[in-house]
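FAQ

Q: What does a record look like?
A: Structure on top, sequence underneath. For example:
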């Protein structure tokens, strides 16, 4: 659940959407995008004054066997703030409001002339407040938080640990990554240095700092439980989460995840939960992603991302078998957009992208994020496997639209584009072809399931069909 939503919509949101983690026994686990709680009624030249030191003596003290993280907290606490927002919400009239509902079920004048004149129902507006957290990343007043913490807010208040309160201006927001950059009119602030989130390892100790449930700033401890996680619960376009078991609850959204050097390694964003509260599965946006995005937001007010122009799918075990590949991994090109960067470079359908700018491509999400990290108009090196032979292409990347959806991500339209058609497919292996009575020599993918409300069903596609 989002940690930055209003009291009203935080809890309704969980009941509507869930993260299915496998079999039915765990299907009830809901992903809370953010943990904002509400009430109804960097380092480098881009940011000045980002903390230059990260207190290496702290890690030595911890390594020496000290059982306290107090010195780390002293560095981090002043840089983590509470964010309170207010905005207006509108509720449109429905069939369950007014006299029409009662007349329909309980009777009333049949003749329109006998009815009393009605006034048209107007949408109702009410004030809505929410609470989340944020991290100061520049001593001159810049701070990071989640986009969902401030989304739709008309008034944003930032409360510091020394008791001061400021009205914040929105410098820029980026829904695909769920990040926002704010600015307050203050100087001499304590800012957190950005650590290298890529260097974090599973098992590293981390602290989560924020204002859970509005009770005040709270510090919790855990480890990095996993890296490179996807949840697909928010906008879903750009996800590379650090997973942690450091307790995170409503209100922690936008707060800090720090390492034992007191460096910011993540912005807390989501939790998975069966109880609407912490069960030890939290997700933080890595600092390396946040750094690039906040620099773009500060300089341009928006994030510019590159675009390759391909539709991609993961290379699963079944697909690897059907294609005669020795291993899984990489992203197979399902289609190439005419005139796109990939098309102009010579990349073709069925190419398997293995490297992008020298970095291994383990799956489609990795490719999407790697392309997004590149600058539009820059040249990139793409290594593909084509019919068992390795080929290298130099690609001049295009630019994705700022409002790109997950399906239109810069790596191209993801392999999940099948969901838009309302079908699920699997590679047609010899075994499946034999069991399904498919004639020999037919190649393609086998339709496993069809959503009766989808476009594929409307076109007459059925389970068992082979898409060639």
């Amino acid at each position: 659940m989002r940690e930055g939503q209003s009291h009203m919509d935080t809890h309704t949101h969980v009941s509507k959407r869930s993260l299915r983690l496998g079999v039915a026994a765990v299907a009830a686990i809901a992903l809370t995008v953010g943990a904002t709680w509400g009430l109804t009624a960097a380092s480098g030249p881009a940011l000045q004054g980002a903390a230059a030191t990260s207190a290496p003596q702290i890690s030595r003290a911890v390594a020496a066997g000290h059982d306290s993280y107090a010195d780390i907290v002293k560095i981090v606490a002043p840089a983590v703030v509470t964010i309170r927002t207010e905005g207006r919400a509108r509720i449109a009239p429905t069939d369950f409001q007014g006299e029409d509902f009662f007349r329909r079920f309980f009777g009333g004048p049949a003749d329109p002339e006998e009815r009393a004149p009605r006034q048209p129902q107007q949408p109702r507006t009410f004030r809505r407040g929410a609470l989340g957290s944020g991290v100061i990343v520049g001593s001159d007043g810049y701070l990071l938080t989640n986009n969902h913490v401030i989304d739709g807010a008309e008034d944003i208040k930032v409360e510091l640990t020394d008791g001061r309160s400021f009205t914040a201006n929105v410098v820029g927001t980026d829904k695909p990554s769920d990040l926002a950059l704010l600015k307050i009119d203050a100087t001499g602030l304590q800012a957190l240095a950005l650590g290298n989130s890529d260097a974090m390892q599973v098992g590293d100790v981390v602290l989560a700092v924020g204002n859970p449930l509005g009770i005040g700033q709270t510090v919790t401890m855990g480890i990095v439980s996993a890296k490179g996680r996807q949840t697909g619960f928010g906008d879903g376009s750009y996800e590379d989460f650090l997973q942690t078991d450091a307790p995170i609850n409503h209100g922690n959204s936008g707060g800090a995840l720090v390492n034992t050097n007191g460096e910011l390694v993540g912005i807390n964003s989501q939790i998975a939960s069966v109880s609407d509260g912490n069960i030890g599965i939290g997700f933080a946006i890595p600092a390396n992603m946040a750094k690039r995005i906040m620099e773009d937001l500060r300089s341009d007010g928006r994030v510019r991302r590159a675009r390759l122009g391909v539709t991609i799918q993961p290379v699963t075990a079944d697909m690897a078998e059907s294609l005669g590949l020795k291993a899984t991994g990489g992203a197979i090109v399902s289609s190439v957009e005419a005139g796109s960067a990939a098309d102009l470079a010579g990349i073709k359908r069925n190419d398997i992208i293995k490297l992008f700018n020298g970095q291994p491509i383990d799956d489609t999400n990795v490719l999407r994020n790697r392309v997004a990290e590149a600058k539009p108009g820059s040249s990139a090196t793409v290594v593909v496997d084509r019919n068992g032979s390795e080929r290298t292409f130099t690609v001049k990347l295009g630019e994705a639209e700022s409002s790109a959806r997950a399906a239109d991500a810069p790596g191209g339209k993801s392999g999940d584009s099948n969901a838009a058609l309302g079908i699920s497919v699997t590679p047609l292996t010899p075994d499946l072809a034999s069991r399904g009575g498919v004639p020999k020599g037919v190649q393609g993918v086998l339709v496993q399931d069809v959503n009766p409300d989808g476009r594929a069903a409307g076109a007459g596609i059925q389970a068992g069909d082979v898409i060639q």
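Q: Is there anything notable about this one?
A: Confidence is low (pLDDT under 50) at residues 1-29, 37-61, 95-106, 403-419.
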